[in-house]
């Protein structure tokens, strides 16, 4: 079975972990294991385990998975930061960055994701 371009998300990297389209499932799994070893224990989640989320994340420039809250943050450019549950349902949306600029910066997006992760965890503890 051949795999599509992005078959997994690394839970410890800020972006999706992609595989080339001509790899078999076994080759893709080997590549994922190499990534995990090279990155000293990074955890990977395949899209098969996340349901329909794959379609929602197509084209995202930044993807961050929060395993504890089971939320996936995605930025496609511009100022919008989307949050999805693992089924692919969009559960929240925030506007990030200076609205006078064409788009938020990667730094603004990563800072916002970290801030929102903390907020989501705190809400879950209440």
Topology:
Blueprint: E1 8-10, E2 16-17, H1 25-38, E3 44-46, H2 53-57, E4 62-66, E5 71-75, E6 80-85, E7 90-95, H3 106-125
Antiparallel strand pairs: 1-2, 1-3, 4-5, 5-6, 6-7
Explained architecture:
Helix content is about 30%, strand content about 25%. With about 130 residues, it is of the alpha+beta class. The protein is built from 3 helices and 7 strands; from the N terminus they run ββαβαββββα. It has 2 domains: about 1-50, no CATH class; about 60-125, no CATH class. The strands form 2 sheets. The chain has a 4-stranded antiparallel β-sheet. It has a 3-stranded antiparallel β-sheet with strand order 2-1-3, with no helix packed on it.
